[in-house]
Protein 1
Amino acid sequence: MVVCAALVYGLDQLTKWWVVSTMTEGQITPVLPPLLSWRFIRNPGAAFSIGTDYTWVFTIIMVLVSIVLVLQVRRVASRLWATALGLVLGGALGNLTDRLFREPSFGQGQVVDFVALPNFAIFNVADSAVVSGVVLIVILTLRGVAMDGTRDAGAAEDDASPGEGADHDR
């Protein structure tokens, strides 16, 4: 979990440093037209720029999420759970770093976003990691996989192949 979080955090901060040092705010650079471009913006809000006047709230939420995830490290024995939680932790810490240390002020900094897809939000590596981690958490939970790697007996029955036990449905 810690390794995954560190990799996500490092990649997020490295890409944001690259964007800030090589692009001007508002600049659009086609990468794979028309599917992907880099578009440098600073986002004071959450996803889709929601809550731009409440940046400090997002900072507090990210601090709390990060603390809760760090406290889970010892409970995680499953590699998939470690990956999922590491993705969320690394992403939360990446955007938290922006909130704490970027302009306009401590705790209210704007997050650097740059990945632009057509008709979608502009996001960054941290955002991608958080979403991927949450999707993996949902899948693991639905499949009944506990953080220690054990499986819920009910979920194991649900995962049985269609041929198994099909006679009782007739």
Protein 2
Amino acid sequence: MAKKRIVVLYGGVADEHPISCISAASVLRAIDTDRYDVIPVGITRKGQWIVDGEDPKGWKLGDSNLPSVEITKRSRPVLLDPALGSDGFFAGEHDDLKNPANGYGTNFVSMSDIDPGKHNMVCTLGHVDAVFPVLHGPYGEDGTVQGLFEMMNVPYVGCGVLASSVCMDKHFTKILLRAAGIDVAPWVTFDARTFDADSQFGNSADSMLAQVREAGLHYPLFVKPSRAGSSFGVTKVEGSDASDEDAAKRLAAAVFEASHHDWKVLVEEGIDGREIECAVLRDVPSEATRTSLPGEVVLDSRSKGDDDAFYDFDSKYMDESASHVEVPANLPQDVLQRVRSVAGKAFDAVDGMGLSRVDTFVRPDGSVMVNEINTMPGFTSISMYPKAWEATGVEYSKLITMLIEGILR
């Protein structure tokens, strides 16, 4: 049987660029190369698509420097002709990467162009059967690249345009889930474009605090970009419900930090509950959504007495000793089943497909609240998504095969 040609896409212009690189490295090391002919395609931080860069399979967690897609001496630009669909993937010459005047700066060409000298050094990457976009964050997980492949009629792993865009925006995720009868944390949303950046939002601090109190939000507060991931720009704001002269300043500083990543900023009420995550899979459209055993990320710093610790970027990706994953989470069976039920319902409510990780809060009374939905969850060696399925009986390499085969049917 002829191998199917799969493009694994990684990197990107979002803050999550290095996490995408590490996730892709794990996927590339585990993918079944007896079944698939794999073409790694990296996207630089400037948005250039390349092949023949640094081998991503060597990237891993724990390195002092986070990986990045860089143009090397052997790199060639990847060029797309949307009109040719699955046959529209080409590679140019190395020098084209530095000469946008050739028309390659946009990565889009038309192979029907009659200019006799324009495409003489372009070669095809072959018929691409599917794309696995291991991209996190904006311009990768938000429906944009999914829309591109929809226009090219190229199968791709993961959620479609609607689910990807909705779940990338935490504000609209909450609105859609709440409309579906699924409990979410109380919040307010700010438009940071209306605040005075010169004062680092200090001139708007009192107004922000007034809106938070009018919404009835209780401390601690979590301030986060609406359309970012991997805990970039997230700040925990302590305080009290009584008058606090420093509360407005702390809130403004947190909103200013989040605004570096997105002009839309959420302020959420901290929930008294355990953060429980559930991996969701619907690899075949005609089959029902499946859910894994729910897991919990245990912050080892809390066991050492740091009760204020939360699962920030360093805990996720830089310090393997900061936390560990427990699957299944240490909860009663009926609560675990409730988490799975809510996770599946949330995934279906946003029209999810392929895979997602649904993050929930389990409150002391056993009720379940959805925090967010990650449509392309981390695939690193310590990520919850593969660990949860492994504990449920689906080995990592088989999981990748299921996701790819599901879209090739």
Protein 3
Amino acid sequence: MAGILALDLGTHCGWACRTETQVTSGVERFENSRYSGGGMRFLRFRHWLEDMKGLTHGFRCVYFEEVRRHLGVDAAHVYGGFLATLTAFCEEQQIPYQGVPVGTIKRHVTGKGNASKTAVQSALTAQGIPFTDENEADALALLMTVGHH
């Protein structure tokens, strides 16, 4: 009964998981404290992936929001670290994974590939899909986009 995991990678990582019986979602935070080394967020992310895999009895596949443009160099580096950690985890566990471009997700959910974050959130709300913040909303929108797989 393996599930599909959809991720909005980042320090505030939005996630959504569909199993045979339910959809669950949330936001997991991977901030570093001032006493943490630079790689600790990625180690915590790796442990979280292992925990999620156990809770869901494995992943049939993992999808992530493929971001091509970042607001700054630090954001790009952090995204790259999460992406490297995720893809290494999936390779090691022999779990298929795939990036989905942001425009593809927006087009599926709103009908417009250049829709705003607000438009995506409004589309989710209109369908009665609850979320706590933009990160969780992005993961849920991604799950909706790939849910037919």
Protein 4
Amino acid sequence: MIDLFTSPTPNGHKVSIALEEMGLDYEVHTIDLRSGEQKEEPFLAHSPNGRIPAIYDREHDLSIFESGAIMIHLAEKSGKFMPSDVVGRSRVIQWLMFQMGGVGPMMGQANVFFRYFPEKIQPAIDRYQSEGRRLFEVLNTQLGKTEYLAGEYSIADMANWAWVRSYRWSGIEIDGLEHLQRWHKAIKVRPAAEKGITVPVDMRLLRDGNENSKETEDFIKGAQTMVQGLKKD
């Protein structure tokens, strides 16, 4: 059994998608980011950096933080979605790290400046949206060569898709990226991926660009509160 400590964010969804795809038993523990629960015990015992997601693998009495590390552990535990051979494993990990070091941080900053920051700093918005688009183009080029990022569907696709699917929220266009669009649609219809993005709560309408709902307004206010708290820190 896996204990999943998470919130409805792309990084959280990466792990819930993986758990669903792998068919692993897990129990969800929702972490309230707006109240600062991620900065307190007992969560810090699982994630010293105070960031979601984190897991506790009861079988091994093992806590793991950092979403990429969690996904690798789950793939190895289940024997699914990451090849065991040196070449195949390397390809999957490279594209997983591409998301960890590029897509996630750039889209995350685009979200902050485009959606949450109280002042509209246009050069910052332009910088992160432009870099996000460039990274999408890298993905598009790769997906013009292979059906999925590392050949067969893998944790690399799950990780990148959890972020790419929220492109509207980041204000990044995918027009003209036909291979990326094909890949996005193919994963979107996978039942496990669809289920994974409803954990711990269903945020699909918000992430799919519904900007006029009360839920969206409340979410933005909560995120703005967190951003202001980070500024004070």
